[in-house]
Amino acid sequence: MIVDLHVHSHYSDGYASVDEILQEASRRNVTHISIVDHDTVHGLETIQKTSLKYNVTVIPGIEISAYDFKRNRKVHILGYAFRQDAPNIRALCAPLLKRRHENSLWQIEQLQKHGFQVELDEIKEKAKMSGVIYKQHIMACLTNADFASEEYQTLYKKIFKGNGICAKDIEYVDATLAVQAIKKDGGLAVLAHPGQLDSFEMIPELICYGLDGIERNHPDHSEEDRLLVEKYAEKYGLMQTGGSDFHDRYGHVVKIGEEVSPLRNFDCGLEITRFVM
């Protein structure tokens, strides 16, 4: 059993279509996969239908862009196995998606004012499957360079970070509310890549709201991060997950199934059966 619980598609800031993702997962012998698009469950019905074409079990998922307001840092919350209509998740994320899109429109205006040759219609075409413009869609219209290249990263930081002309972030949702929404919709809530965002300190607080697990295996996690996840998981009785955080050409060079969930967390298939769509 090969379980990749962290994959992004063109329904948010990933490049690949659901069909392409599932085809590649099947080719790489991945048995279970979760497409956890940022702040949206828009593609769930299509994902479910497409999964029938391939011998891959699809687990409903989402990655919510949240925030720890006490410590002033981003916190991403993964949700799995929630009911397909996901009313609480949708209600929480709808304003977030609206803020993201409006902020992206403002960023495009800033680029145009400063002489960058970007066209709104071209960017909207890149984002047509998501219906929301993400930074990746803007960058795709600014450069053909690979995401991991020095050229791409230098341009990205110049524009979106520090004193960049587009360095304006949106207001994210409280991480505790993200966990609660997932739980209300019958799902499992998992803290995403705490090593990447330095969000370990929030674990005890999130447990009070129903946190079920922590993502252990992630491309950005060091061995120290993985060991720390294990310690927290053992201390609080949490499951451990993992995944590739695949974005195709909109992300780092990583293949589906390159990082996977530790199988010891799925003894007797008890947890994985809850994940099946």
> Which fold name corresponds to the CATH topology?
TIM Barrel
Largest sheet: 8 strands, mixed
Q: What separation lies between the terminal Cα atoms?
A: 17 Å
CATH superfamily: Metal-dependent hydrolases
Keywords:
277 residues, alpha/beta, 8 strands, 16% strand, eight-stranded mixed beta sheet, TIM Barrel, single chain, 11 helices
Describe this structure in words.
By secondary structure, this protein is of the alpha/beta class. The protein has one domain (3-94, 170-275): Alpha-Beta Barrel (TIM Barrel), CATH 3.20.20. The protein is built from 11 helices and 8 strands. The model is unreliable at 266-270 (pLDDT under 50).
Give a summary of the structure in a few sentences.
By secondary structure, the chain is of the alpha/beta class.
Question: What order do the helices and strands come in, and which of them pair?
Answer:
Elements lengths: L2 E5 L10 H10 L4 E4 L8 H8 L5 E12 L4 E8 L6 H27 L6 H7 L8 H6 L9 H11 L12 E2 H10 L3 E4 L2 H4 L5 H5 L5 E5 L5 H14 L2 E4 L27 H6 L2
Parallel strand pairs: 1-2, 2-3, 3-5, 6-7, 7-8
Antiparallel strand pairs: 3-4, 4-6
